[in-house]
Amino acid sequence: MRVVVAEDGVLLRTGLVHLLADAGIETVAAVGDGPAALAAVAEHRPDLVVMDVRMPPTFTDEGLRAALALRRGRSRLPVLVLSQYVEESYAADLLADGAGGVGYLLKERVADVTQFVDAVRRVAAGGTAVDPEVIAQLMARGRRNRVQDLTPRESEVLGLMAQGLSNAAVADRLVVSAAAVEKHVGNIFAKLGLPTDPSEHRRVRAVLAWLGR
């Protein structure tokens, strides 16, 4: 796997490069701002971009805007965004195109190397990874929208899906059978009105509904 790292903090940027290298993942460019990230992507055509949300010159949402630019068009380049704080709208904006290959994690998750590398590989493979803290805050605020008809167990399953867990991983986390999880997922899709459609990523659309989009 070939990755571009975009992070303005020199120490964290260097740490990410070394962490990825230890996992057998090649960093083809490590840059400190959004425009440099876009240029690096054009030059190296990586499999994934790891992008900080707040970067120079204003340290507001330059990284997010660069990430969204990379998601436009046909390429839909996989992007894993890192943020210092929970900013729910950013996660929703990244997921809004209804496609996979996108993640939003708090920077503190990098300290859990196994979890971070798993998120990198999952997003690069077309999956999703939404930080558990974002999910917890949304649940605390009761932003359920169309998911209000889900049972408590179905809501729990959908919350784990939002983190990017597969059915098998959800089954392990809840200590239930894979068949039970498949049944819950099917019920979730049905209640959210998400019929089978090979052109759409139903898991991502379910997460969007959960986020209240």
Automatic annotation (TrEMBL):
Question: Which InterPro entries does the record cross-reference, listed alphabetically?
Answer: CheY-like_superfamily, NreC/VraR/RcsB-like_REC, Sig_transdc_resp-reg_C-effctor, Sig_transdc_resp-reg_receiver, Tscrpt_reg_LuxR_C, WalR-like
What's any GO biological process attached to this entry? phosphorelay signal transduction system
Q: Where is each HTH luxR-type domain found?
A: 143-208
Modified residues annotated as 4-aspartylphosphate in this record: D52
Q: Where is the Response regulatory domain?
A: 2-122
Recorded hits in SMART domains, A to Z, give: HTH_LUXR, REC
Record keywords: DNA-binding included?
A: yes
Mind listing the UniProt keywords for this protein, alphabetically? DNA-binding, Phosphoprotein, Transcription, Transcription regulation
Gene3D superfamilies linked to this entry: 3.40.50.2300
Sorted alphabetically, which Pfam families does this protein's record hold? GerE (PF00196), Response_reg (PF00072)
Q: Name one GO molecular function term.
A: DNA binding
Which domain of life does the protein's organism represent?
Answer: Bacteria
Q: What is this protein called?
A: Response regulator transcription factor
Organism, scientific name: Nakamurella leprariae
